[in-house]
Amino acid sequence: MGREVGRVTFTERDHALFRSRLAECLSALGKAVADPGFGTAPPTLGAELEFSLVGPDGRPAPVNAAVREASRDDRLTLEVARFNLEANLTPVPARGRPFTALAAQASRTLAGITAPAPGRRGIGAVPIGTLPTLTPADLTGRALTDLPRYHALERAWARRRPVPFDLPVGERDLIRAESVAVQGAACSWQVHLTVAPHLFHRAFNAAQLATGPALAAAGNSPFPLGRPGWQEARIPVYEHGFGDRAAPGARRPRVGFGPGWTRGGPLTAFEEAVRHYDVLLPEVSSGDRDAPGDWPELEELRLHLSTVWWWNRPVYDPLGHLRIEFRALPSGPTPLDMAANAAFLVGLTLFLTAGGRDVAEELPFARARTNFYRAARDGLDASLWWPAPGAAPREHEAGALVEALLPRAREGLDLLSVDAGEADTLLDLLHHRVVTGRTGAWWQQRTREALRRRGTADGGAGRPGPPDPRSPARERDSARERDSARERDSAELAELTVHYARLAAGAAPVHTWKPPALPPWSQR
After folding, report:
1. pLDDT in tens, 145-183
2. Strands 255-256, 76-78: parallel, antiparallel or unpaired by DSSP?
3. Residue partners of 31: CB distance under 8 A and separation at least 6
4. Which DSSP letter does residue 225 get?
5. Which three-class secondary structure state does DSSP give residue 481?
6. Which helix (H) or strand (E) is 315 found in, with range?
7. DSSP for 89-146, written as a single string
8. d(CA 348, CA 207)
9. Residue 149 CA to chain centroid, in angstroms?
10. pLDDT (tens digit, 9 = 90+) per residue, 64-112?
11. Minimal CA–CA distance to 343: which of 238, 419, 398, 400?
């Protein structure tokens, strides 16, 4: 959830001063990126892995502070909900085998948490987009991690929208939410790529276009709060999780696909983030803004950008470079799957940037945005727009489009000097996932259906119908049936999550996972 702050409350003077500092930061950023020495280092890749903590029963375990302290791993940070952690992986050179290196770091982090240790017996780290066993009761204000940043965000949002607010969940449900802790229901695999300033705006546009097909092949979040939902239901949960879409007279939502194509150079995306979004956390840096060093810190700009949650986000680093943060990919199912997702997305982005190409000239932004939400909803069955140089854009079935784009992503990885063996292995893994249709979302849906039908075959009652208002006795029976159905649902989701966690720890890619067999009668 971004950069830390030291305060919870702020004054109007704080907001005014912060705004003036933001203007200074943009001016300083312009000077930095114009310097011939800025952004000249070889490209690097990094990643942040968000994941959930669960107990032996597969239910959320609100013990992130204790687990982090016991791990003594400085790369772990506390996420917004007490059952979340984030691992900030060490950046690696982009040439060679970067995706394997990041996957190995993720594997070691997850295994280190799950390994038995005093004070966390039975606690597991589960990389999954949305934890199926979550309930609304797990996402109240009591679930909020006790850090100033999160309390400050809670206060800031409480002034901007109703409390409680409506949160759409799944295909038809609506729950009442009260806290930004709802964001703990969404865990992502956020990949960072350094990009030279002269390429940045075209690469950023390419990332926006490439995200649609990459997301279609990566679905891993079909049960938001236990309800049936999109293939990547994490997307709408996260977008609605601040409640700003329900606020009267709300400005542009802070979580979304972004305002449009970037044009005019590397500063555009940063300027858009400052121009279109008010300040949430106006903590002004107390440090020396003219401290010695090659590049300015720009603390206020970096803090502000951490409160604008586009699915692709521009990042300035005072080490002397710009980055694209690809935020749309889900956590899980395994580090190997996440490495394949990242390789495809990064490779396709670089291919679409090569040769001076700007995809903003080839496809209306509205269609790129449509692609994103169709991919989140329908996964590999989505219909996606894609540009055809010299011809009008056409719609393609997502699975077929990804297959056609795999060689293009391979060319992009070549441009990054990724080892040929690594590129082939990871893209071949994605190929097998696409041709089998076995994404993480597919496995979860198939497993849930198998568990439900098994319960029916074992003598469990069917799902209850509406109560009969003409008969008090029948109404009581119906209420008992509904309670019983909820208990069965909860048990099935817990069993699904435990099974998923075991397979994820085994590290085999998700397209090789076998769901429980359906009862014989249900296969006819």
Report:
1. 999 999 999 999 888 888 888 898 988 888 899 999 999
2. unpaired
3. none
4. G
5. helix
6. strand 312-317
7. PPPEESSBSHHHHHHHHHHHHHHHHHS--TT-TT-EEE--SS-TT--GGGGSGGGB-S
8. 8
9. 20
10. 999 999 998 999 999 999 999 999 999 999 999 999 999 999 999 999 9
11. 419
Supply the pTM of this predicted model: 0.93
Give the integer Cα–Cα distance in Å for 325 and 496. Answer: 31
For the chain, the residue count is 524
- Strand stretches in 320-470, DSSP E: 321-326, 383-388, 391-397
- Give the DSSP letter of residue 39: T
Q: Which residues sit opposite 107 in a β-bridge?
A: none
Radius of gyration of the chain (CA): 23
> Are the C-beta atoms of 382 and 391 separated by less than 8 Å?
no
pLDDT tier at 269, thresholds 50, 70, 90:
very high
CA 197 to chain centre: 25
Residue 246 contacts residue 161 (beta carbons within 8 Å):
yes
Are 393 and 385 in contact by the 8 Å Cβ rule? The answer is yes
Q: Give me the DSSP letters along 385-421.
A: EEEETTEEEEEEEHHHHHHHHHHHHHHHHHHTTB-HH
Query: If you search the block for the tokens 């409350």, which residue do you land on?
Result: 9
Phi, psi values for residue 244, rounded to 5°: -70, -20
Facing residues of 255 across strands?
309
CA distance 56 to 61: 9
Neighbours of 165 (CB within 10 A): 21
